[in-house]
Write a structure and sequence with these properties.
The structure is a homotetramer.
Chain A lengths: L4 E7 L3 H17 L4 E8 L3 H11 L3 E3 L2 H6 L5 E4 L6 H10 L4 E4 L6 H14 L3 E4 L6 H12 L5 E9 L16 H4 L3 H4 L2 H10 L2 E9 L4 E3 L6 E3 L5 E8 L4 E7 L8 E8 L2 E6 L5 E6 L9 E5 L20 H18 L7 H20 L3 E2 L3
Helix pairs in contact in A: 1-10, 4-5, 5-11
């Protein structure tokens, strides 16, 4: 790393690995970054996949040992998109170097793992960021600006959903996501984007009561007739209280038939309401009581160059952003923080609140009682 | 009451009074009823309003004493649309006569009042019905048929909302709806349509945990500067469990800016999902996994003559039903039950479950614990 | 007819006959009319149907001869909802009496028939109205107010559709609507609501060029294997110029699969745009450039008590109106015009412009040239 | 150009220049292309902008003379995104080399210029493609598959719009797009995507009749008070006939307030209907008469990995594609055609039909008569 170049090391080459590679490749042209980004090295779990990943994703070098990548003197910053059980160890190694790290959500499998990461980040004093990609959508950024400006007044209620159907089909086999030992939790952890989003938009959550269920308790295990037991939640829903006094509801499901990107929210305030649906990611709905009574209605704001970051991608509103464009903004935010230490959302400490809420929610499903977040 | 005529007595002449009068006037032509309905007598709280109501709503006679109406030998059946605190007494008088009664929701102010009404109805053995108008929408009837047929499989989750903004404006003065003594509860009771709808669609609810808040604690009291304290909830939300094992969420608000008729639900099942929004009352959205994977999507079914009751109103789909059309179906259902004893939804016993859920939810907001429904 | 009562004679008892009967029955209560409406007499084409209609629709008397109804001294006003080929003769008889008449659209089968009706109305000097029900929707009335107020500035373009699919199925048999001799024209005449709506909203049309096609040229004739030739258009579309200088497009189809009530418009002006879809009849979409650039968007105005006529039906916005509610407004407008001579939209003269546009469009499809309206 | 590398020369560095640069940078990783793409050289109109463009867009070399770029032996293929008046000359030079060329739409300013390009392409025998980016959206590709498979039967009607409001504001100054000499035409040419789309989806157009208007005839010319006359259409609309017998309507506007990406279509067939709106670019609406009558409705298909090309970008449906993703597909199609000669949509000959329709439409607005396409 010098004034002109930042060399990126990527750990993990699955779905998010490809998205991050594209983002690293595009960020300079998109945003006019003051440094060049180099795809220096990629690490995966074995030599074949690692050498393939280097070829396919355009990295200069590869390794089957992530520790080697972290230690490599030519790797300046780390992007980690491995499964949850590796998050803590990789982050701790990177921060010990110390090297800046962007780590896929959730922070760890448990609150304890997450806390280790936050403490390491505090000590390291380098850029650190958790990969909550959807927070980078200009539509949600606009929602935040509207909330912060007081346009919809005092917030009374937040309803947030992240529901999908990727595990609706009972014939889908067991994976690491379905087993507590590796994933930590089920839908509630995998789809915790909405928890982080609630935090980003409406502030800290103080109390939760939650309920969950496993609707498909056995899954094929890959043998002709064998099955394995699922021990993580297929769906969890949560009542919560924000520090501000607002009430909140969070719903997370991986078995909501027909919902492919059911991430969204409705926020009711004293002077208006905001509604968002990630499946229509370049639209934000706004109702304001400031319109005259006979002309009031939810308006659909089509994101455009008037709104933050959108203008980097397209000349006109309605042209539309896609998923990978959010990843590019995410990488841009990370790199700028690396360069000049500016804050990012969410750094490890911000993301830790998500872990605390998650932890309290899981506790609550077990005890059947309201749980205090952070206790 | 004879084979050819049923003479209706109406108590209350406000908003619902007008709708019921229109419904009584239209039902014979609309549905080809085997009897004529006569608007025999109307009762309100004073002589002026009663005589005006008779003239405006087309009733033959009027009284300022509802007991007189109930006792009148020429009144065959009672429709009661007075404020909540009169529901119990009027129902008990009518059922003692015994005369069939259609009584506006909720049954009473409290579970105890409601229980009195159910017991009186059991004893009387005449037609009795609670006024949950929205249950009569052919779209919700279609949802019920889809659920009962198994088309969307086993139900995993029900999310039901009834959110409006009729009390969002803090300058609106105190009314009976805002005071516990008269209304029993706030949004949770006034908007309990969604509780009844959850029951109608997905069966009985066994457990709830709820939270609520009063966001505008003082309202003008009508004097130049005086205010009165609001002691009923502006918003309540509830996690619940159905007897079937499904999870549920219910949200009720009278301060959800921009929501005018925010009554609706999403029901996720193993093989599909149903979505409904009363503000678009002649549409039902259905997702089914039976469509081929590359052609799956939520389809918007426009209600039409293929669906129950719709054909009585219009020749074609898309012509659209309105609020008063649902009231007409409600009156039709009541009259048919009067004639031949057929079941209606909801009779007092069905509606009592709504009261039990309400009661458990209010309990839960006070204790901060899960509450068992009916205990 | 006296100060207290208007006695209605209805000719035709099909779909619209039922809707008009309901409207006559409800108008007094709905609108607080200063007179009572009496369902005096109904006429249909034979004795059985006429006596059934009287029983089902609640008329005091019946006849199988419409001339008898027109001549009857106890019939004060006429509502005519017979097929197109009877419109002219009935109107001429009623106006000769003279008795006020509300006559279903279109005026006649041809421009010549329509002109006879206009001239008879001029001479008679009594209330006359053509039955363009959709013009009575408060949403379209709101669109007119917005246009007249200049809120969206100078109108550049009007796109109006009335597309349905009631004849998409090729197995549907020949009816009077499919034969020129009885219907005058096909989709273009049957769905001419959109032409009248264009006129109502944007003023007179001066020039048209049109194209049409018959996509199902043979239909079953009711015999086991026989077919009849269709000689009316299944779809017609029209470019037009308004007197104001605005450009317009009109599309009319009875074979647009999936479109059940595809009546709607988009109007682009210098300062905004209005969009309406009759299938969501209680919503109007408005875009205005007066909103700040980063908050602009199409807003969905939910009709409510703030908007004309809506308040007669329901207490709150979002409760929704239905098709029959528009018919009630139509009857109210007619009756008020009978009472005090106030103008209605559309009277026969207004509706004649629709016939002229229709005639010019049909001409244009035959000559392949632009046609001057009214020439 | 060798087996491993294709070196790209880009002419023009405006909005599309940036999009093409991103696409060239991403295509290899996105699609797993068998060759590497090198951003070899960029040409703009002067040295400053050219050297800036090279730095910002990541090109190795730059020039202020496009002829130099075309002649450069290290440039293998050309992407041209200059204003319309340069399209012909650049294409002719590239094809004379001969070098493959992807040239922004429209082909030329006039049909004559376009014909020169087609003839040069025929002679050159190298890959040639016109830049109709929206044709690359997987949603429109799905529409084409549905049409080709016969799923919605015989097509009766195509309604296509491309309406935007980028010139609604009368204070916007004169640009090359507003002057015939440089642009050839106004909205009709600039937004001719919809003409190409009609062709792609429904086949050739044989006849048109059109109308247009200039609604803001004078624009500021950059001097304090001066104005210039606009001589290109602000809006044009067209009735057309397809070779298949289907009727069509095309609407093109740059003054449709509130429409930002109003590109879309509705296609009615004997067995169903397709509806698409580019502002919701990852959704396609489908109605099919094959669903049972009481379950029919427009379904919203959310594009996903089941559909062509989508899977290259994201793991799941609903994640969403953006504008630049379509440009990437466009570049991929061009490069594959360069590599193995496979057909692309649209090559110059395909795009020439768009020019012919455009030309006939402009003719028709001048003569006031139907015009035969290609005559």
């Amino acid at each position: 790393m010098n004034d002109e170049t930042i060399r990126v090391g990527l750990i993990g080459s699955g779905y998010m690995g490809k998205s991050f590679s594209l983002a690293v490749g595009a960020a300079e042209t998109l945003f006019g970054l003051p440094v060049a980004l180099v795809k220096e090295m990629v690490a995966t779990s074995n030599e074949t996949s690692a050498s393939n990943a280097a070829a396919e994703l355009g990295f200069v070098r590869w390794t089957a040992d992530w520790r080697e990548l972290v230690a490599d003197p030519n790797v300046d910053v780390i992007i980690n998109c491995t499964p949850n059980h590796l998050h803590r160890d990789i982050a701790l190694a990177a921060l010990a170097a110390p090297k800046p790290i962007l780590s896929e959500k959730p922070l760890g499998r448990t609150k304890a793992e997450a806390l280790d990461m936050v403490q390491a980040a505090d000590k390291a004093g380098v850029a650190n960021m958790a990969g909550y990609t959807y927070m980078k959508n200009p539509a949600t950024r606009l929602a935040k600006e509207i909330l912060d400006s007081g346009e919809i007044g005092r917030v009374f209620h937040f309803r947030g959903l992240h529901i999908e159907d990727y595990l609706s089909d009972p014939s889908l086999p067991i994976t690491w996501r379905l087993q507590k030992a590796q994933a930590g939790s089920g839908a509630v952890g995998d789809l915790c984007h909405i928890i982080n989003m609630a935090h980003y938009l409406c502030g800290e959550i103080t109390d939760v009561v939650a309920d969950s269920s496993i609707v498909i308790p056995e899954r094929p295990d890959g043998t002709p007739t064998g099955t394995s037991t699922v021990d993580t939640d297929d769906q969890t829903h949560i009542l919560c209280r924000f520090e501000s006094g607002a009430l909140g509801y969070l719903e997370l499901s991986r078995v909501a038939s027909g919902r492919k990107m059911g991430l969204g929210y409705e926020i009711n305030g004293s002077d208006g309401t905001i509604v968002f649906d990630q499946a229509r990611m370049s639209e934000l709905k706004l109702f304001t009581t400031k319109d005259s009574p006979d002309r009031q209605g939810f308006r659909t704001i089509l994101l455009g160059p008037e709104h933050s970051d959108y203008g980097y991608f397209n000349s006109g509103p309605g042209h539309g952003l896609g998923y990978n464009d959010m990843v590019a903004i995410e990488v841009r935010d990370f790199i700028l923080s690396v360069l000049d230490g500016r804050p990012v959302w969410p750094n490890f400490a911000d993301a830790y609140h998500t872990e605390e809420v998650l932890d309290a929610a899981i506790q609550s499903t077990e005890t059947g009682k309201w749980a205090r977040v952070g206790s």
